[in-house]
Design goal:
It contains 4 helices and 10 strands, in the order ααββββββββαβαβ.
Length: 237
């Protein structure tokens, strides 16, 4: 073998190349690498911010939709008319709803049912001012379908232990037709809901010590429940 004809291949010395006669090329390459790194970093940060922005927009849109649903539910279920007149007898523990006749007098009985009367209820002529599906009346009790009156009393269901229609206080419910120590003017959930949905703001509510109720008017009596029953039987099934 002719070793003289063999040409040895030299290895490329990158360190010497950088230190040699190419400092300008080295600087250009370094700048390009830094620019590329910054571009990649900027792209990653931009993608991250865009994702956060999209998530934020989705959350705001979802919240807006939920808020819209709540407003729609509230306005659709709260009546705006004043075509009814409510009279309450404290002595009889009875509420009667009258409708307007052709002479624009409230003489047509629509509903009549028993109510519980709270300790602060007294004769007065007032009106419905605002409504809420749940109202907290003490530290531990809530009521449903509450129609607040201008005199600070309210028409509502019997008391609940929490904002759940399966957590009724049976003692409060069974007191309908009597006096109670907690609450204002309490009734079955179904009757409270009827007033909530049909009697608009400014509907007159006249609270009297007593008044004559025609014997032709059938007064609804509540269905009594067991002491361990926590569901109002008047609720729709």
């Amino acid at each position: 073998m002719d070793f003289n004809s063999y040409k040895r291949t030299k290895k490329f010395d990158i360190k010497r190349w950088f230190k040699g006669s190419n400092p300008l090329i080295y600087l250009v390459i370094l700048i390009l690498m830094v620019v590329a790194l910054l571009f990649v970093l900027k792209t990653v940060i931009s993608m991250h911010n865009n994702n956060k922005k999209e998530d934020s927009v989705k959350e705001e849109s979802s919240s807006a939709d939920e808020s819209k649903k709540e407003v729609i539910t509230e306005t659709e279920t709260v009546a705006k008319n004043q075509s009814y007149y409510i009279k309450i007898s404290i002595d009889k523990h009875t509420l009667v709803v009258y409708q307007m006749d052709s002479d624009r007098e409230f003489t047509i009985p629509v509903k009549a049912f028993k109510v519980a009367i709270g300790p602060k209820v007294s004769p007065d002529k007032t009106a419905i001012s605002e409504k809420t599906i749940w109202r907290k009346i003490t530290d531990i009790y809530y009521v449903r379908y509450s129609s607040r009156l201008d005199n600070a009393e309210y028409l509502s269901s019997a008391a609940y232990y929490s904002q759940s229609d399966y957590n009724l206080n049976p003692k409060s419910y069974n007191a309908i037709g009597q006096n109670v120590t907690e609450g204002s003017i309490l009734m079955t959930s179904a009757n409270a809901k009827w007033i909530y949905e049909n009697c608009g703001a400014k509907t007159t509510v006249e609270i009297l010590q007593d008044f004559d109720i025609s014997p032709d008017i059938k007064v609804e009596e509540p269905v009594r429940i067991a002491d361990n029953a926590y569901k109002d039987p008047s609720d729709e099934k």
